[in-house]
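Researcher: I'm comparing several assemblies side by side, and this is the next one on my list. It has 890 residues spread over two chains. Same procedure as the others: predict the full complex and return the structure.
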Amino acid sequence: MTNHFNDIRHSKLLFFIGSNAAEAHPVAMQYILYAKEVNNAPVIVVDPRFTKLAAKATDYVRIRPGTDTAFLMGLINQLIQNDWYDKEFVRTRVAGFEELKKEASHYTPEVVEDITGVPAKEVVRIAKLLADNRPGTVIWCMGITQHHIGSSNTRACCILQLMLGNMGKSGGGTNIFRGHDNVQGATDMCVLSHSLPGYYGLSDKAWKHWCKVWGVDYEWIKSRFYNKKYMNKPGFTLARWYQGVIQEDKITQYTPIKAVVFWGISSQSISQYHKVKKAFEQLDLVVVIDPFFNTTAAMCEKDNVYVLPSTSQYETEGSVTSSCRQAQWRYKVVNPVYDSKTDYEIMEEFVKRFGFADKFYKNIKKIPEDITREIANGCLTIGLCGWLPERIKKHTDNWHTFDIDTLQAKGGPCDGEYYGLPWPCWTEDHPGTPILYDISKPVAKGGLPFRARFGTEYTYPDGRKENLLAAEGVANPGSEIMGGYPEFPGWKTDKNVIKEAIKRGMAPFGNARARCYCWNFPDPVPKHREPLHSPRPDLIKKYPTYPDKPDHYRVYTRYKSEQKPELAKEFPIVLITGRVVEHMGGGDETRSNKYLAELMPEVYAEINPRLANDYGLRDGEMVWIESPEGGRIKIKVKVTERVDDKTIFIPYSFSGMFMGRSMLSNYPQGFEPYAIGEPANIVTNYGYDIKTQIQGTKECLCRIKKA
Amino acid sequence: MAMKFICDTERCIACYGCVVACKEGHHLPIGVNRRRVVIVNEGKPGEKSISIACMHCSDAPCMAVCPTKCIYKREDGIVLHDKTKCIGCGYCLMACPFGAPQFPKSGPFGARGVMDKCTFCAGGPAPTFSEQEKQLYGQNRIAEGKVPLCAGMCSTKALLAGDSEVISEIYTQRVAKRGAANL
């Protein structure tokens, strides 16, 4: 999130696309409804499904799944064509406008109507609403990201806000609500296969930086790898790791995967889940570390699984990072119950047995405070240098002293600081940055320009040269240079450089323009590409997907060879998945709560009355849903107009059934969840983002058969 | 003074936080819903939701029909009942316009068990904070000076609970702001 939840109270318009905040983020709704009521802000909800959030919208736009970029580019085109865009903002802080304008011009209201199903008049009307109500916020979630063009979708959202001049402003910004508490923290720690903590990547320079922070010898770390090549090569992702086991797609690694550890995550959130199950059967070892005997443990039917009981968040402590980049100290409420251990203890037991405890705990004597300190010491890129455990605790202990509107403390021990020191919190006395890219404040007081990450000048394919730094006169108050400037050399690895920059009133990472044209992306300007499994074969030729990617996070990933126009004949119905408010993620925890299970006891497929009648289905009947990949689930029909007559929706938080078979006998007696059902991800399809490899679970095809 | 609930349907998002807070806080059995969320026009434009429990009526019809006179009204307007006197006849349920009274069991001869309903988190006629009060009626938060669990949990502040004059003032202010913004 560039802004914070509380800041939504200042929005003059709320634009949701691919977000069902009323079910996924109910607590955030108080700020959303405040803006709607007090600011009379239009609430625009763009979604294939009339969600509980749509029920609170002033303007609901039903869109065909997988066509968000086309819709957003249509809005951008309207802003440009009608001169509704913020010309001064574009002139001073944006790069690649000409290239954007050219690409966007394709997306006329009529073209957008054909692709998305949104009436042409609506495209113009929504663009006008956006232009007339500034600053507005743009909010999205998995409905935008979980597509094979997810990275284009997210960029189109950002570009929309650039055109409206809504970036770096209170009430504006691009605000992506994270799905759990501390997802942002996990992301910042880069619990991912392509980067070291703090988004440093996997280059030698990044490894050397972290080795210095950890106080270990780089050569020793290097010796731990099979060979040096794999030190710099992104690993498998959560979406496709199981291909490293079953190898239906060719892998680019010296060995198949032999063991997997599931530490606090639901495996049933992975698409094509029946193939994940196949991997469980082939693995030598599966380790499940979780407070619950969960689905993963129950799915392993070979004698290859170990279950280690970990504590809940209430039985341990440490810092967590909110969706708005704020840190908070989570104190322990009770001591661990039964024979569960904290994650710290489990990690320690492993490390000791692996025999490198001396290196692992070099800087860590007191847990968890010293871990927080080590993070602050290493994550310069996102400015965690000021996140000392003492400061985070001080904020948590004094949260009543902070203002609900601005997040700033008025008096008291944290006077002038922003709650949770939203990163970047550059130094040990920096107040935090509540709104990113806000040039109205000095950098030392929480202001920031756009980052200069891609050089100072670029030559576009047509020969046009553009200065990538911000225009003359545009900088934070007190900046030594009143205009654009490049990054300070060495700021990512040397805290003194950061301090020096702040002293000069400047951002360590420079002051540049935000790019509409990203030459390092497959589509430099976002463009529509039909979903791999498209219900509109006629559009595939015009908007084809990418060529296949042979080594995409170590596995061959099909694009063009997977996009077959004839598929829609056999699998004519669009399938999307999402949340229900009663259950969380894979649901292992919430489905084991009797009250939540009572409220939402079983899984269902939402089917429009027209589609139900065409298939002769009645409310409450059972139906088989089948995917092109051979997944099938038996599930109850819920007849509702939430979805249109081409689309069905299934909540993804269930498990306990597997392709018609009960898995309950695999749970130890008394540990079965109360609410059981088929995991929706058994029928989600092949399809992964070209950049991040996130699974495309919001653009699938399926067929239905009466059970 | 009269203690009341108001549910602001412009704010209620049907998250069921109130329902779960109530059940968890009072350790209610499955099937007993002191509070429920009702959704109308589900999945269509005009969808609205409202959280409903005993409304602690000023002129409570349940009191009028109870044959054992076990239902009574406190001075602060909270309607409570004496479970040791209730015979589970179900007249109160028929009289109640909101379907608030709950019955924990039913059998082949319609034996319902003793009635249970929202206490406004004010316990019951048993001695305040006694084990008996807790067992029969759940927590007594009003005696602790706290708002009912449901309203305390409500994430959008749709559900307001308290002195009717105070909460109606909050609601009026809210509606006035909405009106002003629409001018």
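Model: For your comparison table: Chain B has a mean pLDDT of 93.
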